[in-house]
């Protein structure tokens, strides 16, 4: 069966995010069938199973992976090549993650200088799959040369307000891979629940794993769950960035460990959705040991180089005590050998060069962020009006918040990362991240409906150079891509801004 979008727009290559160069070449699609096999040797072999698994799922048949290329038609070849070339001919050489895809009548070839480039090329290949009139499938003939604009292309998921399980996280990793994203930021702790097992502090999950917004069911990831999520991400080129939100957003911790409160009496669990009221106490003796235990344990189970420590909305902390607490947190991150990531508020504290500051509220004065960047921090852009995909796409939408206004598809698309923070040196922009908070988002289907198609818009802002981006062009490509979401059983929001 032909996807309706694909059939209606045979001229549009449904590539999202927009590649640097893409040409549809003449001729029938490369047939996918019994002769289809993935050929991957050496360093490319690590990517073979991803490509074979995905092609196999689209075809409904097993696709083998072979190390040798016998030259027969039907091969999908993955090859590591020394750069440059994949960038489509710029002189600057290839940034990490660049790739080239060529599909002709005989075979498909994906070439890149690194495995991540092969993974991005594999996602492009996946978007070139087309249903053929005989009921089979093929790959559109095309030549694509592509490279990312930013190195940090993230998706954030809040599993603290409502827990979302490993199966949902895997579905998101599949979507993130398909859009060439490379970070999954998991917001693991907040006032309403604690979602990651910490071996040295078992009460965090024993007690606060059970709570969630509105008394809904809780849940948490074990150390083994997190390892499995990271492995699934790594196969797709996605680094998991765990967040332990400190020194605010800690009611679940204070409830599990009463010694963290000044009178030692602890606090009741919290299941509302107010923010900003809870805090650690710099002068409570148990605080420093708690921060050390938790961050050392979480660092030890984190495969990537980043540890996100939150730092947002500690509204009941004076500036002085906030800075002392962030210094304690930053020291533990350094001791654990990780790079600190924090929300924009941490820019007011002293940070090691190379730390990452994540901007979220651009109604605030962001001069401290620009100052931190001049001292060596790098900046991730998640302006709520553009990238907070927990905000309703339009008034009256059944789930979502609207404190930042509504975020329609075009709002998520038409903005420029370099313009968000006044005075920010352009080289300080690490990238872009979309955020999904879950105060009102309970189910997998709600998660996906909030993300699609708006995540595709944010992904294109993160990946594609400004000169490659235009709304009408994006609208046509995303409409051509949507049938693949239907095919994969992913619910999505039919934005009225697109002619689906
Ligand atoms: C602001 S973004 C928050 C979160 C909320 C979110 C809801 C940030 C650093 N803090 O605690 O969940 O708004 O949109």
Write out the strand line-up for the largest beta sheet, numbering strands in chain order: 11-12-15-16-17-18-19-20
Which molecules are bound in this entry? ligand TNX
Count helical runs: 15
How many domains, in number, for the residues?
A: 2
- Span between N and C termini? 17 Å
Plain-language structure description:
This protein has 500 residues and is of the alpha/beta class. It is built from 15 helices and 20 strands. An 8-stranded parallel barrel has the order 11-12-15-16-17-18-19-20, surrounded by 6 helices. The chain has a 7-stranded mixed β-sheet with strand order 1-10-6-7-5-3-4, with helices on one face. α2 packs parallel to α3, α4 packs parallel to α6 (223-235) and α8 (286-300) runs parallel beside α9. The protein is globular, with a radius of gyration of 23 Å. The site of ligand TNX has 10 residues, from loops.
């Amino acid at each position: 069966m032909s996807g309706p979008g694909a059939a209606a727009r045979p001229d549009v290559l449904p590539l999202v995010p927009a590649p640097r160069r893409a040409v549809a070449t003449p001729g029938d699609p490369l047939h996918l069938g019994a002769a289809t096999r993935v050929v991957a040797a050496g360093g490319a072999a690590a990517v073979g199973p991803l490509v074979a698994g995905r092609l196999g799922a689209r075809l409904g048949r097993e696709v083998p992976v072979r190390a040798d290329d016998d030259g027969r038609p039907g091969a999908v070849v993955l090859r590591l090549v020394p750069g440059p070339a994949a960038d489509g001919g710029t002189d600057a050489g290839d940034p990490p993650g660049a790739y080239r895809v060529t599909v002709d009548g005989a075979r498909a070839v994906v070439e890149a200088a690194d495995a991540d480039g092969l993974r991005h090329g594999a996602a492009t290949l996946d978007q070139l799959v087309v249903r053929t009139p005989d009921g089979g499938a093929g790959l559109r003939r095309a030549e694509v040369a592509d490279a990312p604009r930013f190195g940090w292309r993230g998706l954030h998921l809040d599993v603290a307000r409502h827990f979302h399980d490993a199966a949902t996280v895997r579905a998101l990793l599949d979507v993130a891979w398909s859009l060439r994203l490379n970070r999954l930021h998991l917001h693991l702790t907040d006032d309403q629940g604690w979602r990651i097992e910490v071996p040295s502090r078992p009460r965090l999950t024993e007690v606060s794993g059970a709570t969630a917004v509105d008394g809904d069911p809780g849940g948490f990831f074990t150390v083994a769950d997190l390892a499995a999520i990271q492995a699934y991400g790594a196969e797709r080129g996605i680094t998991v960035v765990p967040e332990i939100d400190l020194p605010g957003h800690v009611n679940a911790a204070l409830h599990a460990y009463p010694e963290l409160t000044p009178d030692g009496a602890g606090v009741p669990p919290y299941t509302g959705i107010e923010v900003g009221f809870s805090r650690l106490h710099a002068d409570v003796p148990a605080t420093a040991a708690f921060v050390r235990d938790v961050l050392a344990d979480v660092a030890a189970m984190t495969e990537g180089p980043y540890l996100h420590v939150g730092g947002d909305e500690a509204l009941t902390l004076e500036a002085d005590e906030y800075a002392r607490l962030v210094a304690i947190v930053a020291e533990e991150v350094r001791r654990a050998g990780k790079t600190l990531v924090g929300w924009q508020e941490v820019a007011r504290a002293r940070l090691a060069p190379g730390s990452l500051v994540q901007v979220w509220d651009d109604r605030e004065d962001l001069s401290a962020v620009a100052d931190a960047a001049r001292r060596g921090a790098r900046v991730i852009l998640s302006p709520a009006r553009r990238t907070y995909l927990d905000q309703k796409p339009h008034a009256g939408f059944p789930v979502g918040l609207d404190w930042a206004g509504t975020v329609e598809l075009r709002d998520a698309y038409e903005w420029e990362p370099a313009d968000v923070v006044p005075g920010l040196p352009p080289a300080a922009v690490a990238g872009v991240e979309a955020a999904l908070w879950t105060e009102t988002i309970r189910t997998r289907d709600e998660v996906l409906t909030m993300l699609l198609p708006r995540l595709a818009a944010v992904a294109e802002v993160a990946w594609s150079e400004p000169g490659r981006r235009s709304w009408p062009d994006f609208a046509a490509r995303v409409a051509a891509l949507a049938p693949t979401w239907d095919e994969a059983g992913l619910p999505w929001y039919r934005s009225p801004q697109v002619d689906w």
